[in-house]
Amino acid sequence: MDVWTIGPLVLQKQMLMIAAAVAVGYVAMRWRLRSTNAEEKPADRFFEVLLLWLAVWKLSVWVFHPQTGLDSPWSLLYFSGGTEGAWLASFAAAAYVWLRDQKSPSFPINIDSWLVSILVGYTSYRIFELFFSEVNTATTGLIAAAGAAAAGILLRKRPPLELRRMPTFVLAFVVVHVLISTVAVNTWEKAGWGGGQAMDQAGQQTGIGLGQVAPDFELLTLQGQPVKLSDFRGKKVVLNFWATWCPPCRVEMPHMQRFYSEYKDNNVVILSVDATHTEASKIPVQAFVDYWGLTFPVVLDTTGDIGKTYQVTAYPATYVIDEQGKIRKKHPGAMDQAMLEKAVKSF
Euclidean distance between the first and final Cα of the chain, in Å? Predict the structure, then answer.
């Protein structure tokens, strides 16, 4: 997992890439404004809009997933409104910019600078993904290329573009993006192209990279029954690493149980691995399972070896494995029910 733990601070590679992309977008906006000799009010307002977007995105969990907020008051620390929340936040941010700037004589220039910032920032994030994350290189590469082309065309145009042409330009990029994503999900991503190079005895790729066969292991349940990961071959497996002392794990567990209750008859299983080597004893683990009414298999990693094999450095952490035993998704941090459903439906 691409996570670094520094004392109580947990850093995720994805968050660092997002921060870097935001910085690139901000620099692109300031450069665009300076090239027009316009006042830099949009750049001054950049962080206002960013904070508004983040606030709406986080709080939208109460709109789209109200049960999440009811489960725990700490849910807002770990969950958001997801994709729907991101769209709502984007509309809110756009409305804020429109209301603040529509009467300004520099309105076309301001909108032009926002478009440049968004396109350059988003394209930068996709490029960072391509080089620093485990992603489908074909999908991400095509989207990054489309974004780079759109940003290049926009930057070559003398600012600002005619106001009526801006929505058409942005819509064209969105349509291309959606087309690439849709084709990818239904073709090469569904086929599970990609992966590492290590092979198991059957000649299949094995390891913890996307597309590789997940390393097999055998652990005991609380009742002392042995369970192997390969026992679930032929089913989609949500392999979840957690501990009783982990706050986000406690927030995540109700979602895991609700998800399992709905999907256990649809060829899906959750294999829950407790970091027992970090627990005082098995007693709190049993109490945790009883408290949340967990009905999916819970096994005990008493030595920590399995967590090391899967490079788990912060809890919770989840791998989603397909029917052939190949890793399709990796997620550091808590997952809510909507995220789990999206993960198992993506292949």
Answer: 21
Instruction: Locate 162 and state its tokens.
Output: 């005619």
- In this structure, the number of other CB atoms found within 10 A of the CB of residue 344 comes to 20
Residue type at position 160? P
Handedness of CA 66, 67, 73, 74 (dihedral sign): negative
pLDDT at 201 over 60: no
Q: Tell which residue, 294, 301, 297, has the closest CA to residue 219.
A: 301
- Pairing, β 317-321 against β 218-221: unpaired
DSSP result, 58-124:
HHTHHHH-HHHHHH-TTHHHH---HHHHHHHHHHHHHHHHHHHHTTSTTHHHHHHHHHHHHHHHHHH
**Lookup: tokens for 329:** 């998704």
Length in residues, the chain: 347
- Could you give the CA distance from residue 159 to residue 170 in angstroms, rounded to a whole number? 15
What is the C-alpha separation between 99 and 14, in angstroms, rounded?
A: 32
Task: Tell me the residue type at 70.
Answer: L
> Which residues make Cβ contacts (< 8 Å) with residue 248, sequence separation at least 6?
77, 78, 315, 316, 333, 334
For residues 7-29, b (16+ Cβ closer than 10 Å) or e, as one string? eeebeebbeebeeebbebbbebb
List helix spans (H) across 133-277.
Answer: 137-156, 165-186, 247-263
Residue pair 285/301 in contact (Cβ under 8 Å)? The answer is no
* pLDDT tens track for 131-167: 988 888 889 999 999 999 988 887 877 665 555 666 6
The C-alpha atoms of residue 300 and residue 251 are separated, in whole angstroms, by: 20
| Residue in the structure block whose two tokens are 């995105």 | 57
CA angle 121, 82, 289 (to 5 degrees): 135
Strands ordered across the beta sheet of 327-332: 226-228, 218-221, 298-300, 268-274, 236-242, 317-321, 327-332
The amino acid at 285: V
Whether residue 100 contacts residue 45, with contact meaning beta carbons closer than 8 Å, is answered with yes
List pLDDT tens digits, range 299-325. Answer: 999 999 999 999 998 899 999 999 999
